[in-house]
């Protein structure tokens, strides 16, 4: 039953309505000054890019609630669980703390500005998914839960949480729930609606009454709507929504009524339409009203928000979709506008997106083929469909189309605004509102018409071109008709003709004046369009060139195919270039165009293609025409238009989210993951919620320590193989379709665990084993070198024994015989003859020689025994060899240790030879010998301060001293180094490794491993 409104309250309501009516009347009148009707010229639903996701695209099930969080995710509550959507794929809920939903029977989603997502259930409980992925339960799913059946919720400006439930209004403050009831001025009954307006005012509604919360008294005050129209009911509140100007509206079944209140001082917050979905409809950011169930499908009331205090849905609707082929479902249940301006509609079987296109179709009759367009000076357009030979006169201001009588073949416009129409029986020429008629000599088959501002060019299939100069027709016979593929007017009086071989000819005032070949044109192929102002630009099959004052410079873009088959080029008043080609419509700002021509840098472009409402491909004729202040684009599927001043840029930076990390098919957590040993293939999955044009989101990633540069592309995963053990950091960022990069990179630090053979302990063990092996090899080598030296020494001993035997058995025996013979001869001599004395002296000398020989033979048999040590030997040798004025000194350092016999023997020989050479040839006054018994090696140094050794001494015949020293050193595996230079003396340095030099007794076999 409708409630009666008190008289004083009626007066208050009427007064508020009067104030608001004046406010909005001003806005409406101002709008009428610039438009010819908001509904007539507003957007239509077929002006939006429409996409549908069904089960085939992964649609997760019937959607009962939607919301968009501040990180860009679109959250969907379904009967199969909670999902998030990034514009491409549906992802089930994952939490960082491992918590689960209280139930899949969700009823409410609400996204707050701090990134939290509140989740209400059909039955009991309330949860919140925090921005960091933690799921927290604010009310349990029990029968004693303070929350039963969540409908809507609001997070107040003081942080308190208000929840509209099946049992009334609840408030969560400082962790405690409070029932809002009669003492707060609010009834304890079903509460479906709860909202906060742009000024922070809290509103709540039961099924029959609306309340406003007064913060000073902390009480709710009832609010009445204006008196209903005859035959209407206003005792039911279905939805509360906000228009862009900040006003609050109540949704009824057939109308939207503004809630009484003061004029808002703030506009609607940007996130208002994204925080939760509406069951009845919403006002988009442009003030258009979208409504569901009107009574079927979707309705759009263009510009409805600023026209009145009451909107009748049926009367205000300017376009609607109510056919099965127009929507994924004719029974939509929820609607939401995301932060990028997309409208989302959900149903039990689909999720649908409506995105406003910059291109809108021009309502022209369908035809087989392309249109010829010729704008008139009065703003109207003459339209000709050559294939069907139809013509129309179109008035864009009123969208009025008039079909022309007769048959038409072509339409063209000259630079001075003259329009020429080619009909079946002649040519109509219109200038400054006046029209005259020109009769050609004949009408060729497939006739076409062009104008250069001075002359008319009429041609056809296989027919020479006829040129009308204003008085007479002239036939152009060269080149032949079948050589032409293209015609375009240049400056007044100029006509450019393209040939099949790619050449371009210029005719001025009807005469051929210039020819440009493909070499000069940069190999762009057959010409497809041309513009003469402000610079000459030629388009072709394979590119675009521009004249820079000296030559044609070929233009490039990041992807050159966007400049292929360009058939239309237009320069607007602000210098912006528009090109229509195979990839769609391309916009280039004036500064970027100049920069590319001057420096050759790639063009910075904006591509408008099928994602923006571009149908088909560019038409193959001059396909760009300026009609009033709108740019018309001819395509293979009709004509579309765009406002050249359009610069809508998506400035919302995408936020990258890491979805998963897996190695060899094993999933890892995203919190300090440790990749198991032996993993050969690592995959990172990531995304960036961008709901407007997710297909054009570009990702850039790198793995520190592996990638030297960023890897860029549209793929949403990265794979690495063969990673070595260690710590890594993966970084990824994203860029939206308009070049806006993520504010922050997404980082993931992880560790690849080493296998046993990759651990530091295994490497240390290998190192220790290698050292032991090297030591063993060294000891074995030392053992064999020592054996070789001992064998060599033993050979020497055997040779000395052989020589001793030979001397004893031969020479000494012979000498002894000679002594006996000479002694007998002495006896036979009598007296003191001189001969007797000589023979006796010889006998004595010979006996001395025998004694010396026997001593030598004994020395050969006992080599090494009783001989002086190295230092003693060298001291004796030095003192014996030193002459007058030559000082000799010997020093011994280190602990004196016994030497291997062969080593000591060879070192003695080396030292004796070096000293002898120095004393005899160096001319030195000082000779020093140092014997250093080191722990690692034995070093013998022989130094003098003489005049040094000449470089050519080695090569002199008969000089073997230096060679002998080096040979003896090699024999004992010693390193012999000679340092000398003229005037700086000489230094011999002989170094023998300790293992070879010292004789420490018999080697222990266990050390050598034998």
Number of separate helices: 11
User: If you compute it from the alpha carbons, what radius of gyration comes out, rounded to the nearest whole angstrom?
Assistant: 53 Å
Helicity, as a percent range: 10-25%
Overall average pLDDT: 86
Q: How many β-strand stretches?
A: 70
Kindly name the structural category. Answer: alpha+beta
User: Beta-strand percentage?
Assistant: 25-35%
**Unreliable sequence segments:** 1-40, 1003-1010
Notes on the structure:
- By secondary structure, this protein is α+β, with helices and mostly antiparallel strands.
- It is 19% helix and 35% strand.
- It is built from eleven helices and 70 strands.
- Strands 59-65-64-61-62 form a five-stranded mixed beta sheet, with no helix packed on it. A five-stranded mixed beta sheet has the order 66-67-68-70-69. Strands 1-28-27-26 form a four-stranded antiparallel beta sheet, with no helix packed on it.
Which structural traits does this protein have?
single chain; 1010 residues; alpha+beta; five-stranded mixed β-sheet; 11 helices; disordered C terminus
């Amino acid at each position: 039953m409708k409630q009666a409104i008190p008289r004083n309250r009626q007066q208050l309501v009427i007064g508020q309505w009067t104030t608001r009516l004046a406010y909005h009347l001003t806005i409406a009148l101002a709008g009428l000054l610039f438009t010819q009707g908001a509904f007539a010229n507003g957007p239509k639903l077929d002006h939006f890019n429409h996409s549908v996701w069904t089960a085939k695209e992964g649609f997760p099930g019937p959607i009962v609630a939607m919301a968009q969080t501040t990180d860009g995710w679109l959250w969907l509550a379904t009967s199969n669980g909670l999902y998030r959507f990034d514009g491409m794929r549906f992802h089930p809920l994952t939490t960082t703390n491992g918590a689960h939903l209280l139930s899949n029977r969700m009823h409410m989603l609400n996204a707050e500005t701090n990134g939290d997502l509140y989740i209400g259930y059909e039955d009991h409980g309330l949860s919140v998914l925090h921005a960091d992925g933690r799921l927290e339960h604010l009310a349990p799913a029990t029968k004693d839960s303070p929350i039963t059946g969540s409908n809507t919720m609001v997070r107040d400006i003081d942080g308190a949480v208000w929840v509209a439930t099946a049992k009334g209004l609840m408030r969560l403050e400082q962790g405690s729930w409070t029932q809002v009831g009669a003492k707060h001025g609010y009834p304890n009954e079903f509460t479906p609606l709860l909202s906060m307006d742009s000024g922070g005012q809290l509103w709540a509604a039961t099924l029959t009454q609306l309340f406003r919360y007064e913060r000073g008294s902390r009480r709710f005050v009832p609010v009445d709507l204006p008196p209903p129209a005859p035959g209407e009911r206003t005792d039911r509140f279905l939805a509360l929504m906000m228009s862009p100007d900040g006003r609050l509206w109540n949704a009824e079944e057939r109308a939207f009524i503004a809630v009484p209140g003061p004029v808002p001082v703030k506009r609607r917050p940007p996130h208002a339409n994204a925080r939760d979905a509406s069951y009845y409809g919403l006002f988009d950011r442009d003030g258009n009203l979208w409504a569901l169930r009107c009574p079927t499908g979707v309705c759009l009331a263009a510009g409805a928000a600023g026209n009145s205090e009451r909107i009748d849905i049926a009367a205000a609707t300017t376009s609607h979709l109510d056919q099965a082929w127009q929507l994924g479902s004719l029974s939509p249940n929820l609607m939401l506008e995301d932060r990028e301006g997309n409208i989302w509609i959900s149903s039990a079987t689909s999720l649908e997106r409506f995105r406003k296109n910059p291109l809108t179709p021009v309502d022209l009759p369908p035809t087989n083929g392309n249109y010829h367009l010729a704008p008139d000076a009065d703003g109207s357009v003459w339209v000709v469909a050559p294939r069907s030979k139809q013509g129309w006169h179109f008035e864009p201001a009123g969208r009025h189309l008039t079909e022309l009588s007769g048959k038409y073949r072509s339409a063209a416009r000259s630079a001075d605004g003259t329009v020429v129409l080619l009909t079946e029986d002649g040519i109509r020429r219109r200038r400054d509102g006046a029209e005259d008629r020109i009769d050609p000599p004949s009408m060729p088959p497939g006739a076409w018409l062009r104008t250069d501002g001075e002359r008319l060019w009429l041609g056809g299939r296989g027919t020479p071109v006829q040129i009308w100069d204003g008085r007479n027709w002239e036939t152009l016979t060269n080149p032949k008709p079948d050589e032409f593929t293209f015609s375009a007017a240049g400056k007044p009086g100029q006509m450019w003709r393209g040939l099949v071989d790619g050449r371009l000819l210029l005719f001025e005032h009807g005469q051929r004046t210039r020819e440009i070949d493909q070499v000069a044109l940069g190999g762009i192929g057959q010409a497809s369009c041309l513009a003469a102002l402000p610079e000459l630009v030629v388009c072709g099959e394979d590119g675009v060139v521009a004249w820079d004052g000296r030559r044609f410079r070929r233009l490039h873009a990041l992807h050159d195919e966007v400049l292929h088959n360009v058939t239309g080029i237009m320069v607007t008043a602000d210098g912006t270039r528009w090109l229509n080609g195979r990839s769609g419509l391309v916009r280039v700002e004036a500064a970027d165009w100049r920069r590319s021509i001057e420096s050759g840098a790639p063009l910075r472009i904006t591509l408008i293609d099928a994602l923006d409402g571009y149908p088909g491909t560019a038409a193959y004729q001059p396909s760009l025409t300026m009609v009033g202040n709108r740019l018309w684009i001819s395509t293979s599927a009709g004509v579309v238009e765009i406002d050249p001043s359009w610069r809508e840029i998506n400035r919302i930076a995408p936020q990258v989210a890491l979805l998963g990390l897996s190695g060899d098919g094993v999933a890892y957590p995203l919190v300090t993951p440790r990749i198991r040993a032996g993993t050969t293939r690592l995959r990172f999955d990531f995304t960036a919620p961008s709901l407007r044009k997710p297909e054009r989101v570009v990702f850039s990633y790198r793995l520190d320590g592996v990638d030297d540069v960023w890897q860029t592309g549209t793929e949403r995963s990265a794979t690495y193989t063969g990673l070595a053990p260690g710590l890594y950091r993966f970084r990824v960022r994203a860029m939206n379709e308009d070049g806006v990069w993520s504010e922050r990179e997404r980082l993931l630090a992880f560790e690849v665990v080493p296998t046993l053979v990759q651990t530091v302990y295994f490497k240390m063990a290998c190192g220790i084993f290698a050292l032991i092996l090297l030591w063993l090899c060294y000891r074995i080598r030392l053992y064999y070198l020592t054996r070789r030296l001992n064998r060599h020494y033993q050979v020497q001993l055997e040779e000395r024994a052989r020589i001793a035997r030979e001397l004893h058995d031969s020479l000494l025996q012979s000498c002894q015989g000679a002594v006996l013979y000479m002694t007998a001869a002495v006896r036979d001599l009598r007296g003191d003859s001189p001969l007797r004395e000589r023979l006796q002296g010889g006998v004595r000398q010979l006996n001395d020689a025998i004694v010396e020989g026997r001593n030598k033979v004994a020395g050969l048999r006992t080599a090494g025994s009783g001989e002086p040590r190295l230092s003693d030997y060298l001291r004796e040798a030095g003192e014996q060899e030193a002459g007058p004025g030559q000082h000799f000194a010997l020093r011994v350092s280190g602990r004196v240790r016994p030497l291997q016999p062969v080593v000591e023997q060879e070192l003695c020989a080396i030292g004796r030879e070096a000293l002898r050479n120095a004393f005899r040839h160096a001319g030195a006054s000082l000779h020093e010998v140092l014997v250093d018994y080191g722990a690692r090696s034995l070093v013998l140094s022989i130094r003098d301060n003489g005049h040094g050794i000449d470089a050519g001494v080695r090569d002199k015949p008969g000089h073997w001293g230096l060679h002998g020293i080096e040979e003896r050193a090699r024999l004992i595996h010693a390193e012999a180094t000679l340092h000398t230079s003229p005037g700086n003396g000489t230094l011999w340095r002989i170094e023998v490794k300790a293992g070879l030099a010292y004789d420490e007794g018999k080697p222990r076999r266990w050390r050598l491993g034998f």
